[in-house]
Write a structure and sequence with these properties.
- The protein has 460 residues and is an alpha+beta fold.
- The protein has two domains: 162 residues, no CATH class; 202 residues, no CATH class.
- Helices cover 17% and strands 30% of the residues.
- The chain has seven helices and 31 strands.
Amino acid sequence: MLFLVRNIELTRDREKTYLTAACAASATTITVRAVDSNAWANNDWIIVGEIGTKTAEILQINGAVSDGTSLTIDNAGSGGTRFAHSVDEPVYRIDYNQIEFSRATTKIAGTGTVLATNEVQPDDIYTRYEDTTNSTGYGFVRFKESDSSAYSSYSDAIPYTGYTKKSLGRMIKGVRRRLGEESFKYVTDEDIIEEINEKQRDIAHERLWPFYEDTFSASRVAYQREYGIDDDVVVGKAHTITVESEPIANVDAGVFDQLFWDVSTVGEPTHCSIWNNKLRFYPVPSAAATATTLNGALTATAVSITVASTSGFSPSGRVIIESEVISYAYTDSTTLYGCERGLEETTAATLATTTAVTERDIVYTCHREPNELVDIGDETLIPDPSILINGVAMELAIGKMNDQVLHDRFKIKYDQGLEKLRTKFGKKFTSQPMRIKDKSEVVSSTARLRNPNDYPTGLT
């Protein structure tokens, strides 16, 4: 496992001045444009020279600092400068002079073993360390100040097996490769992460993509008409709604309001409208969701669930036990089989005997918002991450690097990739045939099935 730590992170947004006089090798005093004693102090670490150049070096201030143009320095307690330096070379004040490399078996920082603590190598863009012993686990790095043993926070976990193709870490690297080494001067990782998440949202909101489709559920409450839609669902993008496994006619708000023409509005729901990010049912449900209890403790890995009775449960569907949502494929009189645990962003858990088991009898498919990518191991749901990479490179090239030519180059690639995505995944229907239980329940409507991604027709 080869660790590469970007040295430029040490100098980003730090105090900086310039040499106003050349200095020879072994110099113990340097003349600079200006320093402020409130920002520069004795024993502070500095980098003289531009990171990545052969003569860049870390030195230490060795004497009280007064407002002015002179700094007394040494080479970590001995000697002076290692190299000669020219007028106008930069001088940065930095908080750390070393890097600690460690490894753990989990993604939890600080739980593993320190592999090495190395001096920062400012004559290269990266400070490198290679672990030749281990091939699994997670690596971590953090900066260290050797005198006080002060540390920066840990990096995100770095998998020894590498990042997946769709991971945030791999996409950051992809953007860097496209923008080149020059990008380190203008673009931070935070800039890239922010733009990746913004571009994800742009793509997700363009149309109804199958890879952003999901399923959520709720439990009926007797005489409750409205049920909140999960916050992760794009507003208004819930569809294919069922109650107790039976499809419900999805009508617009105007039609829904007309359904309440008399007082007979309680019973088994037949129609639903989405309004104000809520599901509204007609008639108002007259019964609550079926409930039972566990008949025996449940482990977090169990795929069949024994209950007191499955009477009243749908042949297949979902239940909630404490805070965990679980789907099941079929039942017998006392058991739910083929269970999938920890759905709807809940966590599979160990559950005690007699815990309540409640059917999630309202189920709807939906178009969800993309998850925010934060950890470098987080993955996008977009099938081809190169579209995101090109889109981000396009935005940063013009927004941060002011490079119109580079922007135009990646815009062409982004547009081509997005068109391929539309061709492969663009078609999606969002409604279903009206369910008719009895002729008296039929409501006349001009609503008809249509693809929401097609252009409108019949316009004059």
